[in-house]
Design goal:
heterodimer, A: 651 residues, mainly alpha, two-stranded antiparallel sheet, 6 strands, B: 492 residues
Chain lengths: 651, 492
């Protein structure tokens, strides 16, 4: 099998699942749909792993530097002599890594869903959508052309929309999927205009050529892009910031994050795949893909860095106050992506200074593992108690032992406790920010303390705290113990991910993924790690004190915090603000007047023209009455008038 | 390939429909439309064969017969890639239109006769190379619509039929005056399009005739502020009428603007390009915002057509090869898409007996086929990649961006903004109609019948053919746009 075919098959196999199940699924193969899709995805994952292996260990490295390899490229739409959308596959370290992450998590979610969605009427549709999503996401990470990326960017958006709205008869799901689509669409507008700006100056849409032209200081394209300016900011910076807006929308960065918590209306495995591990990191991937160009513009880098850190902090604060366990996880996702984003923003290229880039990708990788684990664990919990609310949970460790242990591992990992995966990647991120960005560094430090706190608040509320009444819902306690964890299909992914969360941190990421392709050796500084770990332990300690057993201190302290707590609980009223702008301002001040204007003014004029013509015709039709006597009188009058005219006036 | 076939087949079909028994009329219409569809594909193949064989003549398969020699009017036919694309579009829409009209019971024969007659006008229009016969076919494609709406329509049909006919007649009148101006002003006393194109018409004549022709044709394609026939006309028309109106009629205008006004009068085009851009941008945004407020499903798609056709005019006004290519692609794409949209609205209406989106809900549960098709066409309308709307709009955007000054930039950005507003109104409509809890009373409605399914599949395959493999359409259209742009830049 040739290399190009092998790579092309990675996204095409999930696409095949989509087409087969979408066309024939519900009617003919509904019950075996899961098996078919899982099999196709497993093949795709095997190819992806093999491709990554080949790239990293066989052909990727030339003279110690990882190359960008274009496996294939076909012109899809020729805009002009220079600009064309090519559909191709570009393999470099970040793509190879993403191929692994996407297929791996997707495969586990496929397996998990076999049990989780058992008995669902639209089982085949569900798997068809999963296939569509996986195809789009793989297409996105393979993109060799910025417009190709935009295409798949939109496609992951629509798969996300379809999956959030999977329970389409639930009004809240309908609202959530619409919101997710529209908010990200708004951000995509920025992406689109950014593409137009960048491609106009670079004279190409191809990633490699674009990066090459916009980073070589001598090229005509570079000079033009930096010389042209608008409001004192160069066109290049504008293009990058606009592209970043698209990334921020997809990655739920403040202030475009409002769709992510609502997106939790979708089935929980979907949240694990799309809204935690893969699609939401697309924004980070986009910035990483264009990283050399971002490097040129300090303003754009600052925008990335500060957007990241603000999102990380705000999301962590909000996460401390939420009671829906999936929403806590959603805000935690947003916070962690903020970490990845600012790590990119503070990074440079080459050597130690390029640590941020490597750290960001490393965190993306480890986060995918433990966040998917958290969501799948939460799914097992929700499956068991049939509720998303913390108040319906508590003391579940006895009923869900495997879920409990794996969830604990994930919590430790995300809190940055050594030796779990999150510790290593977060440590690198903090180190990258430490030297030049003190504000970001200290904020990140506080945020990681908060992370430990809210994660263990979640953990204790689910598995410890009060004795839950839940098993009374099931007929008998022993029955619920059996039904409990949903069998091997649900437990296997949890165990695999828990192992990954334990071990992923030991990968020497710097050997594989760096900003310039050259290996980067990172040493852990023990002394440096003291502060973050102590803070994390403190966070865990406070959470233990407040939530291990049922008591009234959480309420007491939240009351003491007063308005701050209330504001955080209400997500800082950002949703309300958006609601105000869209409902009140755009609908009432733009939409309504436009419709009114059209109906009354424009159409009114048309109607008045018609009416006017009719009225005029009514008035003058008497002249054409056909009565000869009348004509005679007009004739007479006319003759007399003319006579008067000739005799008296015309002289 | 003899182009006369494209006129003769509908002619024979129309006569056949009139002669047949009532029950057979629809079958004959369907047969005729099917043959015409096949013929269109043959034309496409023959066209490709000629081009790949290296025949670079601008118009292929030309034929010319004297028609009215004393006025130099000849029956001159010929096609370039743009015409071929429009003919394919017409064939798709007509066959789907016949299929969704399967249940028309009132004056069945007359209905199908008029429908086929309309298509005859459209085919003739797209292959004409003489302004006079072009105008002749344009009128054939207008007048039957008055009857279609007036007799088989619903709601305020009399008012709508009048309004539509009068506004389109007003447009035709402008075209006629513009044609006369061209005939005399060019000094050549001919209506022959290639002959006129070879002349360099005096700039003063261009400046007078261009706006007449462009506005006249523009009314057909919902040029702001002459678009108000669109919402009323569409909503009152029977389903096939709406499909034809939005799918083909509005494209007659765009094609005319390009083929007649811009091709013959490049100086005029340059003179008025900015006004066109302003009006088009207004139509795009204003149409989109007005759509947001509509409750009637047909009004939603009608106003959205105003917005989408704005892209056609925007692309034309931008005067770059890419943008003009995009404009033509948008015509084809929007034609197929909007025909499907109206077809689905019609199917839903037949079942729910309402067009108010607020009164529907949860239809995905009872009519999975129709609702899935609604999803697809909605996503196409909001420009999802893989479906036709995306490639056309993006080509217009990229082409527009090639103009580097602030005016063009602002217009392009404003037009781009519509992709968000479109998402809002499309998702609102889909969310209300197909999703949510099933409204009481709709539990027993049935899914699409075979003819409806066939119509839907035909149109969806059109959408996919453009959306998944846009290069064929792009290759077809681009040389045509190139010739127009060459003429534009040659005339200093």
């Amino acid at each position: 099998m040739s290399n190009a075919l092998q790579i092309a098959l990675i996204p095409l196999l999930p696409l095949a699942a989509f087409v087969i199940l979408g066309l024939f699924g519900n009617k003919y193969v509904n019950r075996s749909a899961g098996i078919i899709a899982t099999f196709l995805l497993a093949s795709s994952a095997a190819l992806a792993f093999y491709t990554a292996y080949q790239y990293f260990f066989e052909y990727g490295k030339v003279e110690g530097v990882y190359q960008k390899v274009t496996a294939f490229k076909y012109t899809w739409l020729q805009f002009s002599d220079q600009l064309s959308i090519d559909i191709g596959a570009l393999i470099d370290p970040i793509t190879a890594m993403m191929l692994v992450v996407v297929t791996f998590i997707s495969l586990l979610v496929h397996i998990y869903s076999l049990a989780y969605l058992k008995g669902e009427k639209r089982f085949a549709t569900y798997y068809a959508f999963l296939g569509l999503f996986t195809f789009s996401m793989l297409g996105l990470v393979l993109s060799s052309n910025i417009f190709q990326m935009y295409i798949f960017w939109e496609l992951v958006g629509v798969s996300s929309f379809l999956l959030i709205g999977f329970y389409y008869d639930k009004p809240s799901a309908v609202a959530a999927c619409k919101k997710a689509f529209i908010v990200t669409r708004f951000a995509d507008l920025g992406f689109l205009i950014g593409i137009l700006v960048l491609s106009f100056y670079a004279g190409t849409l191809d990633f490699n050529t674009l990066i090459e032209r916009l980073t070589s200081l001598q090229s005509a394209e570079f000079k033009m892009a930096t010389a042209a300016s608008f409001m004192g900011i160069s066109a290049l910076t504008w293009g990058l910031v606009l592209v970043f807006i698209g990334g921020a929308g997809k990655s739920a960065m403040f202030p475009l994050h409002i769709w992510l918590p609502d997106a939790m209306e979708g089935p929980t495995p979907v949240s694990a795949l799309i809204h935690a591990a893969t699609m939401v990191v697309a924004g980070v991937f986009l910035v990483a893909r264009l990283f050399p160009v971002f490097q040129i513009s300090p303003i754009a880098m600052d925008v990335v860095a500060y957007t990241g850190i603000i999102s990380a902090l705000i999301a962590a604060v909000i996460a401390c106050t939420q009671t829906d366990i999936k929403r806590v996880l959603a805000y935690s996702t947003m916070s962690q992506i903020g970490f990845m984003m600012f790590a990119l923003g503070v990074s440079k290229t080459g050597g130690e200074a390029g640590l941020g880039f490597t750290a960001s990708m490393f965190h993306l990788f480890t986060h995918a593992m433990f966040k998917a684990l958290l969501f799948l664990g939460a799914g097992a919990v929700i499956h068991y108690v049939h509720s998303n609310e913390m108040k319906d949970m508590g003391g579940l460790r006895k009923y869900l032992p495997i879920t409990h242990i794996t969830f604990l591992i994930a919590c430790l990992a995300i809190s940055g406790i050594p030796p779990f995966a999150g510790f290593f990647s977060k440590e690198e991120i903090l180190l990258a920010a430490y030297h030049h960005y003190p504000v970001i560094f200290y904020t990140a430090l506080i945020t990681s303390g908060l992370t430990a706190f809210y994660m263990f608040r979640l953990y204790f509320s689910i598995f410890w705290n009060k004795q839950t009444q839940v098993h009374s819902e099931h007929s008998a306690p022993h029955d619920s113990e059996k039904h409990g964890e949903g069998g091997l299909a649900m437990m296997l992914p949890l165990i695999v991910l828990a192992m990954a969360s334990c071990l992923a941190g030991f990968i020497h990421f710097g050997n594989f993924v760096t900003a310039d392709g050259k290996p980067l050796t990172t040493a852990l500084h023990l002394l440096f790690s003291v502060a973050p770990v102590v803070l994390a332990l403190a966070g865990i300690g406070i959470a233990t004190w407040l939530f291990l057993r049922q008591n009234d201190s959480p309420v007491k302290y939240s009351n003491k915090l007063g308005n701050l707590y209330k504001a955080a609980h209400q997500k800082f009223y950002i949703d309300e603000l958006y609601g105000f702008i869209t409902q009140k301002i755009i609908f009432n001040l733009v939409g309504r007047p436009a419709a009114w204007f059209d109906k009354n003014i424009v159409d009114g004029l048309v109607n008045e023209t018609g009416n006017g013509t009719t009225t005029l015709a009514e008035k003058i039709k008497a002249f054409q009455s056909g009565k000869v006597q009348q004509y005679a009188i007009y004739f007479l009058g006319g003759v007399m008038g003319l006579t008067v005219l000739f005799i008296y006036l015309w002289k | 390939m003899n182009l006369l076939l494209l006129i003769l087949i509908p002619l024979v079909t129309a006569v056949g429909v009139l002669l047949a028994a009532k029950q057979q009329a629809k079958w004959i219409a369907f047969g005729g439309a099917a043959i015409q569809l096949i013929t269109s594909f043959v034309l496409l193949a023959a066209f490709y064969a000629q081009r790949t064989a290296g025949n670079t003549t601008q118009f292929l398969f030309e034929q010319q017969y004297n028609w009215f020699p004393s006025l130099n009017i000849s029956f001159h036919l010929g096609v370039d890639g743009i015409s071929v694309a429009m003919i394919l579009l017409t064939a798709f829409v007509v066959i789907a239109g016949v299929l969704v009209s399967w249940k028309v019971d009132k004056m069945t024969k007359e209905f199908f006769f008029l429908l086929i007659l309309l298509s005859l006008g459209a085919y003739g229009f797209f292959i004409s190379l003489d302004l006079f016969i072009l105008f002749f076919f344009l009128e054939i494609a207008v007048i039957p619509k008055y009857l279609l709406i007036g007799i088989w329509g619903s709601g305020k049909k009399q008012y709508a039929a009048n309004k539509l006919a009068l506004l389109l007649m007003f447009g035709s009148a402008l075209v006629l005056v513009g044609m006369m101006g061209t005939y005399f002003g060019s000094g050549a006393h001919t209506f022959d399009l290639p002959a006129l194109a070879k002349l360099n018409m005096p700039v003063e004549v261009q400046k007078i005739c261009f706006p007449l022709l462009f506005a006249g044709f523009g009314i057909f394609t919902a040029l702001f502020p002459f678009h108000t026939w669109v919402p009323d006309g569409h909503s009152a028309a029977p389903t096939a009428g709406s499909m034809f109106l939005a799918g083909i009629s509005m494209k007659l205008g765009g094609y005319g603007c390009l083929r007649v006004a811009m091709y013959l009068m490049p100086e005029g085009a340059k003179e008025y390009a900015n006004i066109i851009i302003i009006l088009a941008t207004i139509a795009i945004l204003y149409g989109a915002f007005a759509t947001m407020m509509q409750q009637d499903f047909k009004y939603i798609n009608a106003y959205s057509s105003v917005s989408h056709c704005g892209f056609v005019l925007l692309g034309l006004g931008m005067l770059t090869k890419t943008a003009i290519t995009g404009a033509v692609m948008q015509m084809v794409s929007h034609g197929v898409m909007t025909a499907l949209f109206f077809a689905i609205i019609g199917m839903i209406y037949e079942r729910t007996h309402t067009r108010q989106v607020n009164e529907m809900g949860g239809l995905l549960k009872v009519t999975p086929f129709i609702s899935t098709a609604l999803f697809i066409v909605g996503l196409c309308s909001l420009g999802l990649p893989g479906l036709s709307g995306f490639v056309a709009e993006m080509t217009v955007f990229v082409g527009s961006w090639q103009n580097a000054d602030a005016f063009h930039r602002i217009a392009t950005i404003a037009a781009c903004m519509s992709i968000v507003v479109t998402a809002v109104y499309i998702l609102r409509a889909i969310g209300k109609v197909a999703m949510g809890p099933l409204k009481a009373g709709y539990e027993t409605i049935t899914d699409a019948t075979w003819n409806e399914r066939l119509a839907t599949i035909i149109l969806i395959s059109g959408i996919l053919a453009i959306g998944l493999a846009p290069f064929w359409l792009n290759d077809l259209v681009r040389p045509g746009a190139e010739i127009i742009m060459q003429k534009m830049s040659a005339s200093h």
